[in-house]
Design goal:
This protein is 38% helix and 18% strand. With 313 residues, it is α/β, with parallel strands linked by helices.
Length: 313
Amino acid sequence: MVKKRVVVSGCAGFIGYNLCENLLKDNSLKVIGLDNFYTGSEHSVSLLKKKKNFEFILHDIVSPIEIKADEIYHLASPASPVFYQKNPIRTLKTNFIGTMNILGMAKKFKSKVLLSSTSEVYGDPLVHPQKESYWGNVNPIGIRACYDEGKRIAETLMFEYHRNHNVKIKVCRIFNTYGPFMMKDDGRVISNFINQAIENKDLTLFGDGNQTRSFCYVSDMVEGLIKMMNSPDDFTGPVNLGNDDERSVKDIAKTIISLTKSKSKIIRKRLPVDDPCRRKPDLTLAKKHLGFRADVKLEDGLIQTISYFRSLK
């Protein structure tokens, strides 16, 4: 039997690894992972290489590549402020040139492409919760713009290749996601708080802590991505994927201290420039078209994530 060929760019990243793990449960798939290890984990890829239906190619998608594939999950991009601000021009190149290269490959081989876009396309939103019809409030020249605008132009490219070259596309706007195989040093809220808490260090809270986020456990996110890829071709998105359980960052810090039984205290630091004050997805489209829902409660997901980080000690 000829296996369906699925490419995952950014396979060594947090969501990329978890996605590959899920896809490889299906023996009818051949999964080909691409990564350049700029932010991804070589250890994660070593685990995937143990699977018989997985192949890894070390590659930076800023350079063209041709792989015959039925489906492409395009996840390659630095995704946390620490990493994408480290080399902003590289972040822009990955999202613009890299996405164009992926789409060029898809055009040649008639592949279906799913883009992992981001809630950051909404910027610091003036509409709450955020619907896909909202055009956003992004500072195009700020220090976060390399990622925010990089993903916005990636979405534009997706739709232009769809309109002009009939490439089958799927665009997912991913909201805050957490879970096992997050990078310890990625600077994200949950990974920061958990690692500070289990080491009994002070938890650094930026601003007054009243800014909100809606965190989705990675297994729910991966399920949403796969459902989107398998949805009818006429449903292109963009579609929000995430959890609509909105929490203040301050409450999350207190919850993590409680779950870890940490002696940590909370200290405050200045809020970073252009950091969104409120973030919550409107999931109406995802529920209607994908039957998507986030099943894992925050506290349950945090327990699993804490356990993962403890295992690294």
